[in-house]
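Researcher: Re-running this chain for the archive, since the previous output was lost when a drive failed. Same request as before.
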Amino acid sequence: MIFVFGSNLAGIHGAGAAREALRRHGAIYGEGRGEQGNSYAIPTKDEVLQTLPLRIVEVYIWGFLCHARAHPKQDFQVTRIGCGLAGFYDAEIAPLFALAPDNCLFDAAWKRYLPAKRFWGTFKEKR
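Model: Regenerated structure tokens:
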């Protein structure tokens, strides 16, 4: 299972799902996008930790969706990327995953936005 989390382009995985990815899923400090160990970083903030425009986040999400389609034997556990420190609303981000392949599983908080998808639960950071 690949843990998909929101990140910043500086690769500073200091809080939330990004910290979980660093501690438990092989994310690499200093790498802000793409597959790393058993994780995949989708940037929602820039190099100086400012929230990226939604249209830019959408481009990174499309990149991830292409990656997920290209790796059908892997399952991807998608967290509520961008809906924490980046400040986006679930209603803004979740629909961007509407065309995700079946090997993507989503945080149950997105059930109302992605009713035909698979879900895994809700992310709670482990201390």
